[in-house]
Amino acid sequence: MPVMDLASRLGNSTAFQLDLVDDTDSSFIDITHTGQWSLSSAAPKHGLQELHAPNTDLFWQSSALSGPHDMVVCFPHRVEVQTVALFLDYMRDETWTPHIVQVQAGATRNGWVDVGDPVTLTHPHGWVLIHNAPVACHTLRIRIVETHQQGRNCQVRGVRVFAARPSGTTFTPSRVGGDAVAMWPYTSDVMIKGEALR
């Protein structure tokens, strides 16, 4: 499925559709909840729980004196991230809205490599796809480099991370601790070796 089809399926809805791309005919899978998330800072009652809530009336709000502001996800095995989607709303958040976003990937939390150029957003409303070349990684950082009108903090109302579905496999989610975990059979030595952190 082309990325534009993915964008149209996300739409500008204010509620998450958690099974949005987990159907068997999709070429993408939502791997948002397969990793462990952390934030560079968070205001009280505006942290991870609100960022991942199934309602975009809730949001993550950073609480640092200045940026950049980071969302970091560590996956239990190497994944091939295809794209990242952020739900942003300039109409409601104004200067809190991210303006420049940089996606970075790495094998650990210390070795970050930029994935493509920073993306500049102008008054975004709804789901914004940050499409970069696919990247295989264990960790992913979504960095809010700058907010609109040089605001100090940011607000993000939703985040989704998508991977390309491995060809010839069927996505079968399983539940571990309440979170869906992607399980599919790797057959190549390269994928099997990179499947888990050592």
Describe the structure.
By secondary structure, this protein is mainly beta. It has one domain (3-193): Sandwich (Jelly Rolls), CATH 2.60.120. Helices cover 11% and strands 41% of the residues. It has helices at 3-10, 48-51, 90-93, 189-193, and strands at 28-30, 36-39, 60-61, 69-89, 98-106, 113-114, 119-120, 125-147, 155-156, 158-164, 174-176, 179-181. The strands form three sheets. Strands 1, 2, 4, 5, 6, 7, 8 and 10 form an eight-stranded antiparallel β-sheet that branches. Strands 3-9 form a two-stranded antiparallel sheet. It is globular. Residues 13-23 and 170-185 have low confidence and may be disordered.
Offer a few descriptive terms:
single chain; 198 residues; mainly beta; Jelly Rolls; 4 helices; 12 strands; ubl conjugation pathway; APC_su10/DOC_dom; APC10/Doc1; DOC domain-containing protein; mitosis
TL;DR?
The chain has 198 residues and is mainly beta. Helices cover 11% and strands 41% of the residues.
